[in-house]
Design a protein that fits this description.
mainly alpha
Amino acid sequence: MVPATILGLRPDLRRDAAFWASVGLAFVGPAVIGIAILGGAWVSGLAPALWVSIAATILLFAIGSAVVPTLWRLLPLLAPYLLVLGLIATVWQHALGAPLAEAAPTGWVRIHITVGVLTYALLTLAAVSALAAFLQERALKRKQPNRLTRQLPSVADAERTSTLLLGLSEVVLGLGLISGMAVEWLESGQLLTLDHKTLLSILAFVIIGGLLAAKHFTGVRGRAAARFVLLAYLVLTLAYPGVKFVSGVLVG
């Protein structure tokens, strides 16, 4: 992921061959590491969760960069952040966790895991886009654009992209909650277990839904909207890798 991070510092960043090559490399590296760690069976540790999340985020970023006109401009913010996550996964590479229980049918478990990873990847992109809008708006108000903000999407483009990604995140997170209830029912006969992960996921769902409603009915935007997006991302981070960090590193 280092080439993508360095490329994001280039003053004349373009969606050219170098861009696609660096993004492709940033995907292949974490994907290969994640596959090597998992070895064909999902384990619940911090390191595999981070590597899979990084790979999924880069993949969605690449797809979005080909479809959404300005999404590729998020690279200067996204690449360094994912590089930091990769460093965290490397430092705690021993936190592999344990294989999942076999009580629930494999298909349901795979669906639930896939939906969870997609949700976190989508919300990561939404949070980075919201941060870009925040930085752009602050630079405009201060009348002090800098090298970074000149690379990022405009405030309007960043907010439009963030709202689109938030909507997708809300839908996928809702599917994740439903699939989680299905897995819980098949494993224990209970529809919902109110543990830390579930409660934080529901809270993130409520925050995102509330923000989307506020955007639609009141037109909330700018810094206020960005703060709520980052709050939702923080809550989902606590629910997903945060819980794994506590159970696999601090406790384990």
